[in-house]
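Page 37, continued from 36.
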């Protein structure tokens, strides 16, 4: 298994370009199953998760071509069964359920398990399918949904922890081909949901309200092929902004939508960093002593759970006491034990982390546990004294396109050791 070695203490400067969004690309790739015509997607990031999704599409019968960031998918005929061997590697494979149900009126997909960031149920996805008239059965580790026809309905998708992103995507993808009008209340407002709705509308769907809590979907008889550019990855952007804050002399990220990362730039401003934006770039630079922070993760437009671990890394060496509360995945703190091995002082109280900033971290061998936790360890390594060795790098490769190369362009001393 590959490792990443980071020799800490080398300040970052310069600029890098943000890649296409993983969490937009995955459901949009799944949405290509809704039509028999070719779809062309640009800026699909080169990640193991997008590769898994393409494998799933091919397994389901689609023809796929990929040339650098451009992917073309033609799903002239589709199978409606995605077995465990094909979907087990990635939880987001669950988002083929909606398009398969929409197009074939039935789908069988292996049920996703829990994952390291906590229990990850799909009850809200299934509730949405049932409201559209589908029957749901869970047997032999598979979830089977089927309906003689789908009929529009009013559905509230808000759960105990707020709205569901992939649940909103899934129900929207089934509803575009239902008879009549569907109203999704308590919809997720994330930019990735808006990107999917924009793509579906280009395919001939009639969706209004994307980006608000209420989606109105007028069903159509069929969809056609479309072309689409995936939006920039706001979590990759946020991760680089935190890298610049942790250890930068001023870095600029390009090809970003500043509005999408506002919660992160506001948090960094509150910590005392200088943020300067143009319509598609953001520069973060030091501006005197950094200050501690109190923040809580929330669904968009709140502070993203996918940036919580990286903020923990930053606040670990910010003087004073910072407090983070994780409201979306309350158990998402696997990075804390590893950061402590580097000298961080963090105390967990339920879903709250109390962080006493230390003067410096010390490099150590640490283990990545999930995508964002791994990114946090790399960021901590940039600042730490000595060498940090991050194992299980495949977690990083799931969701960051060439993270080590981009950091190296900014001046980090970072290398990948192949095993
Ligand atoms: N939830 C339920 N029932 C459901 C679905 C979700 O109770 O049926 C709960 C979850 O357990 C969680 C909350 O609702 O407490 C929100 O989960 P959500 O469904 O929104 O998460 P998701 O759609 O499975 C996506 C991203 C995650 C990101 C979350 C929250 C993709 C592929 N994944 O997951 O991204 O953390 O939204 O923003 O879009 C990552 O990229 O590292 C990542 C984990």
């Amino acid at each position: 298994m590959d490792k990443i070695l980071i020799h800490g203490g080398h300040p970052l400067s310069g600029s890098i370009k943000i890649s296409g969004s993983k969490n937009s690309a995955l459901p949009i790739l799944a949405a290509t199953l809704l039509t028999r015509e070719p779809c062309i997607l640009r800026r699909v990031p080169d990640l193991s998760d997008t590769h898994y999704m393409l494998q799933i599409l091919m397994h389901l019968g689609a023809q796929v071509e990929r040339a650098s960031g451009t992917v073309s998918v033609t799903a002239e005929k589709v199978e409606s069964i995605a077995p465990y061997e094909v979907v087990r590697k990635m939880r987001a494979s669950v988002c083929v359920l909606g398009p398969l149900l929409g197009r074939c009126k039935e789908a069988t997909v292996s049920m996703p398990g829990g994952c390291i960031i906590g229990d990850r149920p799909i009850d809200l996805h299934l509730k949405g399918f049932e409201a559209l008239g589908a029957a749901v059965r869970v047997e032999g580790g598979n979830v089977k949904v089927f309906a003689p026809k789908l009929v529009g309905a009013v559905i509230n998708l808000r759960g105990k922890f707020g709205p569901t992103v992939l649940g909103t995507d899934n129900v929207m993808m089934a509803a575009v081909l239902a008879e009549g009008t569907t109203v999704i209340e308590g919809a997720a407002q994330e930019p990735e949901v808006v990107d999917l709705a924009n793509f579906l509308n280009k395919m001939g769907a009639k969706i209004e309200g994307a980006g608000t809590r209420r989606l109105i979907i007028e069903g159509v008889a069929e969809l056609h092929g479309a072309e689409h550019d995936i939006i920039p990855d706001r979590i990759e952007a946020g991760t680089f902004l935190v890298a610049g804050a942790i250890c930068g002399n001023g870095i600029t990220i390009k090809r970003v939508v500043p509005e999408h990362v506002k919660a992160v730039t506001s948090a960094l401003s509150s910590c005392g960093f200088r943020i300067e934006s143009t319509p598609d770039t953001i520069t973060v630079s030091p501006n005197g002593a950094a200050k501690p922070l109190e923040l809580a993760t929330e669904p968009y437009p709140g502070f993203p759970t996918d940036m919580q671990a990286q903020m923990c890394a930053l606040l670990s060496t910010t003087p004073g006491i910072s407090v983070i509360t994780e409201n979306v995945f309350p158990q998402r703190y696997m990075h804390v034990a590893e950061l402590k091995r580097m000298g961080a002082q963090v105390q967990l109280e339920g879903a709250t982390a109390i962080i006493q900033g230390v003067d410096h971290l010390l490099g150590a061998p640490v283990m990545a546990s999930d995508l964002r936790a791994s990114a946090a360890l790399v960021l901590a390594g940039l600042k730490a004294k000595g060498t940090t060795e991050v194992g299980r790098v495949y977690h990083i490769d799931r969701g960051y396109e060439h993270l080590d190369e981009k950091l190296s362009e900014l001046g980090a001393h970072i290398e990948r050791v192949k095993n």
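The radius of gyration is 21 Å. Flag for discussion at group meeting. The chain has two domains: 2-14+232-418, 25-229.
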